[in-house]
Structure formats: C-alpha cells, structure tokens
Design goal:
By secondary structure, the chain is of the alpha+beta class. The chain has helices at about 80-85, 255-265, 285-295, 300-305, 345-360, 375-385, 395-410, 455-470, 545-560; strands at about 1-5, 15-20, 30, 35-40, 45-50, 55-60, 65, 70-80, 95, 105-110, 125, 135-140, 150, 155-160, 165-170, 175-180, 185, 190-200, 225, 365-370, 415-420, 420-425, 430-435, 435, 440, 445, 485, 505-510, 515-520, 525-535. The strands form seven sheets. An eight-stranded antiparallel beta sheet has the order 7-2-4-5-15-14-12-17, with no helix packed on it. Strands 20, 23, 26, 27, 28, 29 and 30 form a seven-stranded mixed beta sheet that branches. The longest helix is centred in the middle third of the chain and has 16 residues, at about 345-360. The termini are far apart. The structure holds oxidized coenzyme A. Oxidized coenzyme A binds near residues 489, 512 and 530.
Length: about 575
C-alpha cells in the first residue's frame, strides 16, 4: 500500500476553474476512472476522474477552490503495484487546430470574431470547432432558433458526453437562417451547427461541402485542448476552444451528472431554478423541483400544455399523466440499527394505492370548523340510558351521518362525482365511515342513510364495524358511498386533513370533542365543541360553499331539530 496524490490532468484551457462538486469522501473506495470532482468554467463543466483505484485518505480540495492542471485532488491509498505507476498528470497534448485548407470556407463555431472582419451578405455555416477528444457527442440543448439574431460568442448549442457538457458558441454575429442540428443529434468536429445570414466577423461560405476540414478562421486559429492525460483522462470533452466571455442565454446550467439525473427523471432542466453558484442547478434543485411537481405546486411547461383548459376536462381524474416521480429512496436501515421486515397487509396495500392516487390527483382543500354539540351529546347520553336494554348504543357518528345527509341535500355538489366534464348528482345518500381494523383502514357504507333513523344507523354501524374488525366485510358492504365521514373522536386529536375517497368529492373528518369556554354575549359558558375538518375537491366545490357546508352542519349539530326543516 502506498499513498498517491491524484492530480488534475491536462484539461486544456481549463485553468483555475472552480470545483463545484466533490463526489467522494474520506474512506470511500474509488475505482479507476471514477469521477472525483466536477469543475466548471463559464462555458463548460467537467468531471475529473481518478487515475487509480484505491481508498480516499484525504481530500485536498473543497467546494469553490480553483484548480488547474497538477492541482492535487485527493490522497489515495493504492496497492503497491499501482502506486508505482506514475501519477503525474500527462503532459498537455493540446494540438493546434489544423490549418484551414481554405481561407473562405466556413467558420469554427468557437472561433472569436476577427475584429476588423467585414459584414458579409451571404450565408455562413457555423461548425463545431476542434475541441479535442470530442466524438459523437450528443446535442442536449439547442439554444437558438431560426430567425434569432445571435452575437459572436453567443452559445448556440450544448453538447454532452459521459463526463462533461459544453456550450458551443458562435464565431460570428448574424441571423439564424437554418438550424442543422436538433436535440439528440450526435455531432463531431466540423459538423455544421447552423447557417447564419448577414454575418459579421466571419466569411461567406463559398463551397462548404468541399471544405470540411476548415475549422478555424485564418485570423484566429483555435487551440485544441484535448483531455488526454494518464489513466485519468476521461472519454470526455475538452473545454471549448474560445475565450468565453459571452453569457449563456436561457441555458440550464448543470454538471453532466445532474443533467443525467434530471434526464432519468424526465425533469426539464430549463425549468429548474439553480441554487448553486452562478445559478448552477444542483441535484437537490432537481429533487426539489420534482417534489413540487408531485405536490401539484408546480406544473412543467409540458404538463401545462397538456392540461385541459380551465373548466374543461376536469375529469382528468382518470387521466394520470406522467408524474416523473423520484425513485423511492433506498436505504439500508440495518446500517443504523436492528430491523425486522414485515409484509404489509392486503388491505394496507390496496388502500395505500388508492390513497396515493387520490392525494396526488385531487386538488383537495380542507376547511376546519367547530360545532357546538353540548345539547346533542346530552340527548345522546339520555337516549342511550333510555335504550340501555335494547343493546344498541347510539353514537355521535350516527348523528353526524344524519346531519351530513341534511347538508348534502342542501349542497348537492358535495354528493356528486366527476365524470369527464360533467357532474353526476346522486339522488341517494350512502354514507361511508372509515373504520380502523387490525389489518388497516376500511370504509363500510350505510346505505340510504336519509331513509333511516339514528337508532337504525347506530345499529347497522355497530354491525358493520364488527364485521370490519373480523375481516368479514364483503364488497357490497364497502361500495356505493356518495360521501364519507372519518371519525377519530373516540381516539383524540384536534383537526386533520382526511383524503377524499374518489370518486367522491368530499369527506368530513371529526376529532374528539371537548369542553371549551364560549362567549354568549354576557359570559363565558362551558360548551362541548366538536372539531370538524371538511376536505373537498376544488374542481367541483369552491371555498365559499365549503365554509357554508360546515356552518350549516354546525347549526344542525347545535340544534338537531333543524334536520326536520
Ligand atoms: N368526541 C368525543 N368522544 C367521542 C367522539 C367524539 N367526536 N366520538 C366518539 N367518542 C367516544 C364515544 O362516545 C365512545 O365513548 P364511550 O365508550 O364512553 O361511549 C368512545 O369515544 C369510542 O367510540 P368509538 O370509536 O368506538 O365509536 P364511534 O362510533 O365514534 O366510531 C368507528 C366507530 C368504527 C368509526 C371507530 O371505531 C373507528 O374505527 N374510528 C377510527 C376511524 C379512522 O381510523 N379514521 C381515520 C381515517 S384516516 O386514516
């Protein structure tokens, strides 16, 4: 074993460039060719790989450091034999650009404009310049379009290899007449990027096709830095051979690994706001963007384009579309402590999938309110005393079901479902109630609750709850609900945000009632208050209607005689 300093190899024009990512840490075992850091200039970013395999003993650079050829990146512990290999960076192998074979053929994209160059009226082909080890690299961004006026040095396209991305600037100013590349094209030195008209600082094209080797203007030969070094030389791009002065226009600024990451997730990088230096997009930015899209806080341009017009196609509920979700984090929990793996119950698996769809697809809003149930609770206790022998216990939930039926009659859209662009108003009142069972959450349904009294509802609810706990509910017991109540009143808590049980459009969450001081105009009175949380689908219901629904429910619960009205 020996310690070896891994240095920045000859990377051409990359001099004093900033370290924007450190991709390893002390103790990491790295392979030869594994990327250690990402460096970045104004126009290109590049990952610098390790020339040897070994274990990282010390990191000699940090974020923001400026490095050049020969700068030590890490101290690596390598096997004896490998250590004997010369770690010194390979000498620069930058080759000068080939001399132009024709003085008036075409221009290298990166060649700076000759200061005294005249304007020319004919078309000018702008080509990919000689930029070193640069073969069959993909065009990942086209930064201009036909009709655009471009300045000399303005970036035209971004190309990317495994390890580096680079913007190719224009050698001349002019108007884009024709684009010769598109996204995904593989380009090589000499390929025509676009044709400019009225170009300044370049020369007109005489016989383009016959002069493929002419890649630099005579006045400004381009140096061609190649990324050739020892074992560390990545199959990568060198920096563009130009003086990078122009600012990138509308360019997604990210390292190749972040670009790759974004591509895998289908994230449009051009829509992600970078939080890194100079607005560079980091992996975290991509993750945050994805999370925002998932949460519905942000729409990608593509989604916006696909989305139905406002008011139309609200029934996109069945659509789904592409969510481009991040992969679920894979964590080896055993690394942190003892663990046990248990399969989830069948109910949990099924309800989990439904809940996820409903949470993501429905633009849901929850209104919280309180209902004064002092008198109702007194009545319930009295009723239970009187009916003690019947064996049927009247529950607050049974009263809530009746109260909700009255509210659903007054606000029929709460008892509806979306069907494409139409609403189906149900003329029946089947009320589901969430029941907690040892195997997970189920929702039995009280059918025709409008036609049943509180006692009958209580009795049916007791039977259904028992069937639920015993795992004996059949599909018929759980289907057809037009509205659902989820009561945590027997357990506790103040408010929560229940998830709508699609294709219903609203759900009422209820928590534990408690005595609160309420001002009656003269004094505070102890009142039993029931917390209500109404979640509703904003495509169907608006906030005012939701507030009215809750207020109406509160009035009924405060004085149950109103049910009769
Ligand atoms: N405030 C105060 N106390 C309440 C109450 C409320 N809002 N609601 C019920 N209680 C009391 C009851 O009066 C009862 O007290 P007593 O035993 O002294 O009479 C006790 O709490 C237990 O009630 P319960 O929960 O057994 O009966 P219920 O009719 O209220 O509910 C059922 C039945 C099946 C809905 C319930 O057992 C259950 O499973 N609840 C959980 C639902 C759930 O998990 N929802 C979450 C879905 S989102 O994940």
């Amino acid at each position: 074993m020996a310690l070896l300093d891994i240095q920045v190899p000859d990377i051409g024009d990359f001099d004093s460039v900033a370290v924007i990512e450190v991709m390893v840490k002390v103790g990491d075992t790295v392979k030869a060719e594994q990327s250690l850091i990402t460096v970045e200039s104004d126009k290109a970013s590049m990952e610098i790989p390790s020339s040897h395999a070994g274990v990282v003993k010390e990191i000699k650079v940090k974020l923001g450091d400026k490095v050049s050829e020969g700068s030590v990146i890490v101290a690596l512990e390598v096997a004896g034999e490998a250590a004997s290999a010369a770690p010194a960076p390979a000498p620069a192998v930058a080759a000068p650009a080939p001399a132009p074979t024709s003085p008036v053929a075409s221009v290298a994209a990166a060649a700076p404009a000759a200061p005294a160059a005249p304007a020319v009226s004919g078309p000018v082909e702008v080509r990919v310049p000689d930029i070193g080890d640069f073969k069959d690299v993909a065009v990942i961004e086209v930064l201009v379009k036909v009709g655009d006026t471009v300045k000399a040095e303005q970036s035209l396209i971004t190309v990317e290899s495994d390890k580096a991305s680079m913007e190719i600037p224009s050698a001349a100013a002019g108007v884009v007449k024709e684009l010769r590349v598109k996204l995904g094209d593989k380009v090589n030195i000499g390929d025509v990027v676009l044709v400019l008209e009225g170009a300044v600082g370049a020369v007109a094209v005489a016989a383009v096709a016959s002069a493929p080797a002419a890649l630099a203007t005579p006045s400004a030969p381009v140096s061609a830095p190649a990324l050739a070094s020892s074992a560390a030389a990545p199959a990568a791009l060198a920096v563009p051979a130009h003086n990078p002065t122009a600012l990138a226009v509308g360019v997604a600024h990210a390292s190749p690994s972040v670009r790759k990451f974004a591509r895998e997730l289908g994230v449009p990088l051009s829509e992600v706001k970078g939080s890194g230096p100079k607005g560079r997009i980091t992996q975290t930015d991509v993750q945050r963007f994805t999370a925002s899209v998932m949460a519905g806080a942000v729409q990608t341009l593509a989604q916006a384009a696909k989305a139905p017009a406002a008011g139309a196609g609200a029934g996109g509920i069945t659509g789904g579309g592409e969510l481009n979700l991040l992969p679920w984090p894979k964590v080896d929990f055993a690394k942190f402590g003892p663990i046990e793996r248990k399969e989830m119950s069948r109910i949990k698996k099924i309800s989990g999938a439904n809940l996820t769809r409903n949470a993501i697809v429905i633009p849901a809003v929850t209104n919280h309110d309180d209902a004064d149930i002092t008198e109702l609770e007194a009545f319930r206790v009295l009723t239970n005393k009187e009916n003690e022998k019947s064996g049927v216990k009247v529950t607050m939930l049974a009263f809530l079901i009746k109260a909700c039926v009255a509210a659903l009659k007054k606000f029929p859209e709460f008892n509806s479902s979306l069907d494409g662009d139409a609403l189906i108003y149900k003329q029946y009142y089947h009320i589901g109630f969430a029941a907690d069972t040892p195997n997970g959450l189920v929702v039995p349904v009280i059918k025709d609750a409008d036609k049943k009294g509180v006692l009958q509802i209580s009795q049916e609810m007791g039977e259904l709850a028992k069937k639920a706990r015993d795992g004996k509910l059949g599909p018929a017991d759980m289907s057809g609900a037009s509205f659902t109540i989820s009561s945590l009143g027997g357990i506790g808590g103040r408010y929560f945000t229940p998830i709508i049980n699609a294709p219903e459009v609203a759900i009422l969450g209820v928590c534990k009632s408690q005595i609160e001081p309420k001002w009656d105009g003269k004094a505070f009175q102890p009142r039993l208050m029931l917390p209500l949380s109404l979640t509703w689908d904003h495509r169907v219901i608006d906030g005012a209607a939701a507030a009215r629904f809750n207020a109406f429910l509160g009035q009924i619960l405060a004085d149950f005689r109103r049910v009769l009205l």
